[in-house]
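[job 4471] stage=fold_predict status=RUNNING
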Amino acid sequence: MRTIHVIGIGAGDPDYVTVQAISALNDTQVFFAMDKGEAKDDLVALRRLICDRFIEKPGYRFVTLPDPTRAADVPYEQAVDDWHAARAKLWARAIETELPDGASGSFLAWGDPSLYDSTLRILDRVAEHVDFEFDVIPGITAIQSLTARHRIPLNDIGEPVLITTGRRLRADGLSGAAVVMLDGDCSFRGCPPDTRIWWGAYLGTPDELLVAGTVGEVADQITEIRAAARQRHGWIMDIYLLRAAD
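[job 4471] inference complete, writing structure tokens
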């Protein structure tokens, strides 16, 4: 039977790759990667760099798949479900045609496969059409990288932390502490000025950006830096931790 490894490769720094991940990399004959357009070519390039660095024997290959477009004119949940369905159809065909029986393939997940990543949900759909076994290799998340680079604990003593999105932050507001991901609208600007924020982009890469302070002090700075970085690179991955004032 075919085997699929879902490998968390960390938040950008190849040094984040774990020994367990290196073992799975070396067990892989075919790597499947999504082509998200020219602007994000460096994301595929980093995956290739990790393979070149850690795989001991040549002979593996990359199969690059065009990423389906996610509709912008339908409700969010429907758009995501349709996008996942289109990806699952594409992946099923690729696994059937590109991965022989008995061989091992891998999907390399940025950060950790369990955190705001669609790979596992899509593979559940793929399994309805193609027989394979799979395992999951955890990776260092952007959350861990953010707190390490800012040299802070994630939570206050005995206090919870919410992991959410910019869309949910705008809808629900902030109570206590929250890690915010997938925020293209700088939703932190709607928080009280004395809210603490620790922000980071391109974590673990040579392009890493870090800003910390209160929303009142640094919201404009983050917004400007973020816009300039996105224009420069054509894409941005950022994340931030918010902590409401006592």
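[job 4471] summary: The radius of gyration is 19 Å.
[job 4471] exit 0
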